Amino acid sequence: MAYIYDLTDTWNAGGTTFNGIKLNVTDSASAVSSKLVTLQTNGTEHFSVTKAGVGYFSGNVGIGTSSPAYKLDVAGAIQAQDYRVAATAPFFSTGDEFRWRTTGGTERMRIDSSGNFAIGTSSPNYSLTSYKSGAVANYIQVASGATGAAAGNGTLFGVDASGNGVVTVQGAVNYITSVAGAEAMRIDSSGNVGIGMSAPTTRLSVNGPATAGNITVLTLNNPRTYGVGLGVAAAGIIFGRQTTGDGATAPMGAIYGGNTTETSSSFGSLTFHTRDTTLQQRMVINELGNVGIGTNTPGASIKLDVVGGIRGQAVDTTGSPAFFSASGGGVLYYNGSGVAVLRAYSNGAGAAGTLTFNASGSENMRLDASGNLLVNRSSTSGLGKLNVEGGADFTGGNVYLARDTGFVSSGSGSQVQAGKVGILFNANTNQGLALQETAFGSGSSFILFANLSGTAIGSITQSGTSNVLYNTSSDARLKHDIVDAPDAADLIDAIQVRSFKWNADDIEQRYGFIAQELLEVAPEAVSVPKDPEDTMGVDYSKLVPMLVKELQSLRARVAQLEGAA
User: Fold this and answer.
1) What is the pTM of this model?
2) What's 187-233 look like in SS3?
3) Which residues of the chain have pLDDT under 70?
4) Phi/psi of residue 60, each to 5°?
5) Is there a single domain that holds both residue 478 and residue 492?
6) Which domain holds residue 254?
7) Are residues 524 and 563 in the same domain?
8) C-beta of residue 446 within 8 angstroms of C-beta of residue 436
9) Residues 395, 346 share a domain
10) Do 517 and 548 sit in the same domain of this protein?
11) Same domain flag for 397 and 462
12) Residue 330, phi then psi, degrees to nearest 5
């Protein structure tokens, strides 16, 4: 290759420092831009160095390469204390920051002097700050080949157009803890949350650690400071349902745990709430373990305090008894035939005893081991299966009180009809039914009869000390149009007095009436049932006024005849 100017020298002296070319100009008057060296081709400058030491290259400069493709093409590492580019370039440095711009010079990103990375803002507040002006959504996408890079793929972190924080996940969200990568929590694609498990089947599934004894899998805490006068404080869970299409919910039930008193922060309770129109407390388990239903303050010595009725069904299909008390006071069990059996014992050993009913600490009724029902007494004294104590005792037989849907028979010909109430008793040796008055004496009512409106129409009362009166209503205040009764001679003559025998026992009655015959003459003395299949009856006392009238008439005629004689 030919050179216009070739300066060749040989440096052979060992240990000697040589300089190839030296240009030294002593000058203090010329301009700073004066050039010490200029290389041109056909008058076009390609390289120059000014008096101030500023170099100029018109083409590409290659370092470590003989074919540079850029203004500065370095094949190898670059070390610089300060690296800067023009402020109008897409990437430039201001000395302590790096900035990136798009066409038109708008800054898009920067790394500030604190190392914070900013997107869309010049003032990053955190290690990564992304900002968009206006009410628009702004997300950061993290994706991979497994998710794809399309919009919405992978995981999006950001805010929506309303300013709400949003994390959008394609698939499940797995929170991994520890260096070993053990999964701690997962939100799957169905929205189910699993803590300690990788396959949750409900909205929240928690699996605690496999350790012996009790473990705590969920803690709810009210951070309110405890103190007298601050009121009770509780934390809990609310159960609700969606009420509108916008996701609003209404509380349907709740469970709270917290302080039950302002006197001690160590006292706590559980309260249970349901909703009618508002959320209301229905049950409480207080610091003593006492349960209150319908009351917020169960009694201090009452384990179950219920305000309202109780209805229950207890069946043990295995036949094992369920004790009412640990001391063996009672047992409820299933007898295997579809019947729940209630049994009481007198002691914890299980010996058959009595079932007692108490009010205000006193016994009111008992069912003893022999099946006797005693009211206000503790022993039968041989008085029968039903004993009611209200004063002096009566001796008697068995008592049966019935209201049946069919016929209940007792002996020949007697019955309690369907839907009626009857009393059946054994009167072989003593009174079948005994009524004793103990307060007022003569005039006291044993039995009172009343009509549908409640007005008394008859009674059985005591007369003196040795008799009773069978009364029917006869007060003048109950009557009107009162006149003398007509002569009863024709009616008396029309009454047929019969002799007959009873079908039930073939006993003969020498004088009596037939209800159907008497009905034609004295209907007021005959009871006619609503059901024609039922039998009629006769009230003989209704004939007494007629007989008295006829007796008066006879006496008058006798007196007249005697006077004529």
Assistant:
1) 0.40
2) ECCCCCEEECCCCCCCCEEECCCCCCCCCCCCCCCCCCCCCCCCCCC
3) 1-5, 11-16, 29, 82-95, 103-104, 175-179, 224-233, 242, 244-248, 260-266, 311-353, 357-363, 381-384, 388-432, 438-439, 565
4) -80, 140
5) no
6) 230-242+249-299
7) yes
8) no
9) yes
10) yes
11) no
12) -175, 165
